[in-house]
Amino acid sequence: MAIVVGHLGTPEGKEALVTAVSEARQREVGLLVVTSGAAGAAEELEALGTRLSNAGIEHRIVAGTGDLAEDLVRTAAEEDGDLIVIGLRRRSPVGKLILGSGAQRILLEAPCPVLAVKP
């Protein structure tokens, strides 16, 4: 059992991580941090792992393929995830109609509850 969250450097991604850490603590489960698959983030991921370890958060960093929505859903299914935490950003009126293809895919395909947060 674990909380699944994507690793993104955006304000929405950072808020999702903060919320995921809080949920992991409250539920007393581990945290699975799924990378976006972007190159050049090794140092940032190492620093994140150190911060989580120092905070006493049981965690594992899972390498993504580049399709974060698919990676989050797959990881939650394979690892018996309790919850997926995603960050949402404000959208224009037209953008609201489609929510965001990644967020929509996660909401529709997730094998567990999804918590959407905003900064």
TrEMBL record:
Residues 42-118 form the UspA domain. Pfam families: Usp. It comes from the Bacteria. Belongs to the universal stress protein A family. This is Nucleotide-binding universal stress UspA family protein. It comes from Isoptericola halotolerans.
